Amino acid sequence: xxxxxxxxxxxxxxxxxxxxxxxxxxxxxAHAHGESAAFYYTKVETAEPGAVRDLGAAGLSxxxxxxxxxRSPAPVASxxxxxxxxxxxxxxxxxxxxxxGRAFRYSRFHLDPLIPRALAxxxxxxxxxxxxxGRRGERLLVATLDGRTVGFLAVFAAEVPGxxxxxxxxxxxxxEAQGLGVGTALVSAFIRVAAPTSDVLRVGTQIANAPSxxxxxxxxxxxxxxxxxxxxxxxxxxxxEASS
Length: 244
Prior knowledge:
Helices cover 30% and strands 33% of the residues.
């Protein structure tokens, strides 16, 4: 019911644990009692406020409401744009890592006031680094504008009951290129390349990220479910050193 997230533990410099569905507050308290410094996280369906209240007694608090949106693999209308999207090339790696390390604002790590901003940025940078190293996902799309790398979209395949889904795992636009249609171009390209081999297309985002929700719904995605994301911190506060 409580499993270590080894990848996040390495980044945070302390044990990080995922609390499984149905785990009760007394189990979390008993587990945390043996840790001098640790980080816990879980997701709870928004239709289960009782579980939120129970886990709150163990120190877990809501930092984010995550929204999952689904779309059929129907074609997306083509548009004329100066943004070009293609599969990642080796010479783009450095630019992609730079974007991943500074473009995010609404992730659960960035919304948690007890996680230093530099550490939240590093989580996303390391996340996309795993794609570049071939350790995660199946495809990485990259957007260019006037020859500059301005964004990316990471894709993985998932099994849902009786269906094959392609999921937007991570998407970002360089801050200086926001408002230029990069996000629209990336998501439209994802729909075109993923639709032929998928039964459903899926993406998750934060309820606080209103611009992304508007983009996804404009491109045919509809809200399918929502969850509370809860965090708990045990011991000394996380420091900037954890991100170095």
